[in-house]
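Inverse folding, one chain.
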C-alpha cells in the first residue's frame, strides 16, 4: 500500500493518493470549488468563510479530506485569505514553483489529491515561529471543529 503519515504526535494516519479524472472531480465539486481546486483559481479576497474564523479545529482539504492545517497555526495577516504559518506536517502539502500572472510564487497543493490550495510566502516579517504565510483559499478547505474531531 502506498501511503504516508500525517497527523499529530503519537498517531499515524496512512493515506493513499486520491486520483480522479476531471469528470469525477466536476461531479464531486461545485463549479466554484472546481475552479479553485482543479484549475488553480483564486476566490476574491475577504470573501471566504474562514478568513476571520477563530474556531478551534483542523482544516482539511475540501476535495479529499486530508488534514492540512490546524487552527493553532492560523494567524491574522490581513491579506484577505486564511493564513497559516505551517501545515499539519511537512508531507501534508506539496510546493511547486508558479510563474503565472507575471510573478514567481510558490504554489501550495494538497499532497493527497494534488488540488490547488493557494500560495506560501516567506520572509514577510510576521511574528510567527516560521515567518511563512500559507495564504489558502477558504473554498479549498473544510474546518472540522475540535468537538467533532
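Residues assigned per position:
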Amino acid at each position: 500500500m502506498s501511503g504516508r503519515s500525517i497527523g499529530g504526535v503519537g498517531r499515524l494516519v496512512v493515506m493513499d493518493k486520491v486520483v480522479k479524472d476531471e469528470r469525477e472531480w466536476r461531479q464531486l465539486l461545485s463549479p466554484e470549488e472546481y475552479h479553485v481546486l482543479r484549475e488553480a483559481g483564486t476566490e476574491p479576497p475577504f470573501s471566504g468563510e474562514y478568513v476571520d474564523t477563530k474556531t478551534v479545529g483542523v482544516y482539511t482539504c475540501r476535495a479529499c479530506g486530508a488534514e492540512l492545517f490546524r487552527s493553532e497555526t492560523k494567524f491574522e495577516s490581513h491579506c484577505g485569505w486564511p493564513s497559516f504559518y505551517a501545515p499539519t506536517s511537512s508531507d501534508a502539502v506539496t510546493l511547486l514553483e508558479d510563474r503565472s500572472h507575471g510573478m514567481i510564487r510558490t504554489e501550495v497543493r494538497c499532497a493527497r489529491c494534488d488540488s490547488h490550495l493557494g500560495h506560501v510566502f516567506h520572509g514577510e516579517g510576521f511574528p510567527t515561529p516560521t515567518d511563512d504565510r500559507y495564504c489558502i483559499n477558504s473554498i479549498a478547505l473544510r474546518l472540522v471543529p475540535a468537538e467533532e474531531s
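The longest helix spans residues 31-39. The chain has one domain: 4-148.
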